[in-house]
Amino acid sequence: MEPGKVQSEGGLNVTLTIRLLMHGKEVGSIIGKKGETVKKMREESAARINISEGNCPERIVTITGPTDAIFKAFAMIAYKFEEDIINSMSNSPATSKPPVTLRLVVPASQCGSLIGKGGSKIKEMRESTGAQVQVAGDMLPNSTERAVTISGTPEAIIQCVKQICVVMLESPPKGATIPYRPKPASTPVIFSGGQVRADPLAASAANLSLLLQHQPLPAYTIQGQYAIPHPDQLTKLHQLAMQQTPFTPLGQTTPAFPGLDASPPASTHELTIPNDLIGCIIGRQGTKINEIRQMSGAQIKIANAMEGSSERQITITGTPANISLAQYLINARLTSEVTGMGTL
Q1: Which of 102, 116, 300, 313 has the CB geometry, 3.0–4.6 Å to 120, for a possible disulfide?
Q2: Where are the beta strands (DSSP E) in 7-79?
Q3: Mind listing the pLDDT tens digit for each residue in 228-266?
């Protein structure tokens, strides 16, 4: 292999996992009749290709393997999507060919490296590959991942994916990543009275007796002076927090249970944080504290600095699960600051 080639792929042939977000129709195209297409992709690329289960409008396709196997799998997916576009155009009056589009799911903590200082990295990727690259501003629901959309010709997409892989290998994710899991299409909830409601609020009302029971909180490990939940408990806690968020914009009552609040009662917890660490929790223009609020479903208020005091009071309001997750996220920010692991 010539030296330039090694350089362009970062000189790394290590095992990597890339996650793609696809619509049902795209997944069907990748699977093919009787699974023939995905079987061929697995055999020819030597990459592991897994497709998430579930009756969801969106599915996650996970590609794992050495970097060269990943690039082969991506090439096959990109060319398959181009073939689908060409086939669909033969039955339509459209004359200009739309680009192939792939959506990667990337831990939010790595997105800064993909964008680069002042957008320099993403600009360089666009210019050197000819692909369009966009990093979503918001995290995907109930996760710490963002969607990265790449569109262009299959060749441009493959070059762009190579560059993204190099960045991801050079800047591994920081802290715990809560992976995005697509939600199933909502199923209607039928109450004894015969009313049918398809919204999640009604579902939580139906489960009211379950939700109001005290839920056991996760096992913790002590890391430095902060308690950190065990990683596999974190996702459960996050799901529980989202399920039980007491601050619902959908109104406080449901017709099926007149006058009954569908959410568990909120409680309040207070923390004190040293002044010199408060900045890492708030983040630039409040970005970090807003992420913590969004992910935990808790209300979080930070008191103004008191004259002569070296600490700030933080008040967290929500269900036990909301509070526990907010505390974890705050502790994780503090731990990364204290241990010099950088920002989450």
Answers
A1: 116
A2: 15-23, 48-51, 58-66
A3: 444 555 666 666 666 655 554 443 444 444 444 445 567
